[in-house]
Amino acid sequence: MTAKLFRNSTAVAVSVMVLSIALFLGMLYQYFSNQLMTELETETWLVAQGVELNGMDYLTGLNTENRVTWVDTDGTVLYDSQADETAMENHGDREEIQQAMTGQSGTARRYSSTLAQQTLYAARRLNDGTVIRVASAQQTVVTLLLSMVQPILIILALSLLISAVLASRMAKRIIRPIVNLDLEHPEDCDTYEELTPLLSRIKHQNDTIQQQLLQLQQKQQEFAALTENMSEGFLLMDRHGHVLSYNKGTLNQLGAQAPQGEVNALVLNRSESFRQAVDEVLSGHRSQQMLRLNGRCCQLLANPVMQGEEQMGAVMVLLDVTEQEQREDLRREFTANVSHELKTPLTSISGIAEIMQSGMVKAEDVQGFASDIYQEAQRLIALVEDIIRLSQLDEGAVNMEREDVDLFQLSLEVTKRLESAAQKNDVTIKTMGRSVQVHGVRRVLDEMIYNLCDNAIKYNRRGGTVAVTVGPVEGGVEVSVEDNGIGIPAEDQNRVFERFYRVDKSHSKDISGTGLGLSIVKHGAALHDGQIRLESTPGKGTTVTLLLPQG
Which of 487, 503, 491, 497 is nearest to 531 (CA)? Predict the structure, then answer.
């Protein structure tokens, strides 16, 4: 036992010392790394000033241990102090170069294949757009740390020696009272107070009882950990309906407070469904009820607990099925909307066909009726295509290939296709901005921009304008479609992206469309990890902005 105490004490002391030294070395290494980077940035600034004044003459006469590189605006290396610049690859994709070109300066740390070691880089943009970069190997910091290995080892050896001496003395001092115990008369021993229970005759019995209690407590803790971390509710009752056990999930789903003392289960909830479930399960029958409390929907499953032929109690499980019910409501609503939208053009087609079949149509009117049938059929086709597109987006568009897409060029193509529709509605449509690329599904991006522009034209006024603006922003790429049309009331702005939702039901009858355009935009944005922002003022116009991650 003495040897074990000695080993443990020594191990603890040595471990603390080693961890302290490691932490100190790490902090020292970080300090010198930061210091080296600061000096490198200062040198970069000085070199940049020299190049601004004297150009290449300054670089050819520069004497420095660090590597100096001059990079053109397109990433071409104009000069390098340690390598042939004509044989070097384009540096436009280097992190520090990109930072300097977009800002004023840039820094980076990485492994250099040219220098075959960890290298620090600092870059600064000149007035003509070119970039001066200075690189320094981090070998000097490593060398500095390695130079401290010898004193560190000496300190560690001394610490180990001192720890061994102190641990040996402490171990002997701790073990001495135990070694000197008089086992024949343990009650007369002057030893540690903690050892007193071990010196009594009843200790063996206490140990047995304590072990059984610990096992029982462990089982109880395991059961409590299981039930308390369940999102489902769990309620156990005796044969009289008194609560024996429950978890937090039960209180949360029933909206009840923790009961004090022995109470009946009906104290937790007195709704008709809950009372019926309690009565049925206590009478020995399985019960299944649906509770609707505080806007949530809870499914209650109750089963009797039997021991042989005798009922001992009952157990209830409460499942939160709110989301499942909401999904079912959405499904029913979607089915009803689709049925209505399909029924309207089909009814028109059927009515026109019935009139034509009866021979009541004059020859000169046949073309007009055929035109009506064609328009209604096209409306049906557009609706079915939009439904299929939404289904594909809901499934994650697994069959849609992604590619690099120029959003500005795509917006020009969309606005060009919509020029005739804009002229028909006496609306001016234009595209502004510059080329930016995203990595996405071209067909979906096209339809998103098309739907936004199409809505901006349809819900505009005579002589109105639609402006499509494309450009980079912080965090990605932005496509903004702005119109000065009728606008959207504030109470409807949160719902316009729902399927088949129309702001003005009466006005929408005069405007063609399936009611799914903005829903496709919403799902398309989610497919590309993008965001949608809508700003609208009734009578003044609407602006819908797509923010997409840059490809």
Answer: 497
Distance CA 203, CA 209 (A): 10
Average pLDDT of the residues in 273-284: 86
Residue 161, exposed/middle/buried by CB under 10 A (0-12, 13-18, 19+)? exposed
Angle between helices 2-54 and 149-179 (to 10 degrees): 160
C-alpha closest to that of 132 among 42, 197, 63, 26: 42
**Euclidean distance between CA atoms 10 and 455, whole angstroms:** 78
Q: Please tell me the pTM assigned to this model.
A: 0.40
Backbone angles phi, psi at 255, to 5 degrees: 65, 40
Each residue's pLDDT tens digit, 425-442: 899 999 999 999 898 888
In which residue are the tokens 């157990």 written? 315
Q: Quick one: pLDDT at residue 505?
A: 47
Q: Which two tokens stand for residue 343?
A: 């029924």
CA–CA separation, 272 and 155 (whole Å)? 77
Strands laid side by side in the 476-483 sheet = 428-433, 465-473, 476-483, 541-548, 531-537
Q: Which residue has the higher pLDDT, 167 or 58?
A: 58
| Nearest residue to 425 via CA among 544, 512, 496, 497 | 512
CB-based contact 116:99 (threshold 8 Å)? no
Q: Is the pLDDT at 142 greater than 70, yes or no? A: no
Q: Which helix (H) or strand (E) holds 526?
A: helix 517-527
Helices 442-458 and 407-417, axial angle in degrees (round to 10): 50
Q: What is the DSSP string of 350-364?
A: HHHHHHHHTT-S-GG
| DSSP notation for 380-408 | HHHHHHHHHHHHHHHTT-TTPPPEEEEHH
pLDDT, one tens digit per residue, over 191-240 is: 655 566 666 654 555 567 778 888 888 887 776 676 666 667 878 888 88
- Sign of CA pseudo-dihedral 248, 250, 255, 260: negative
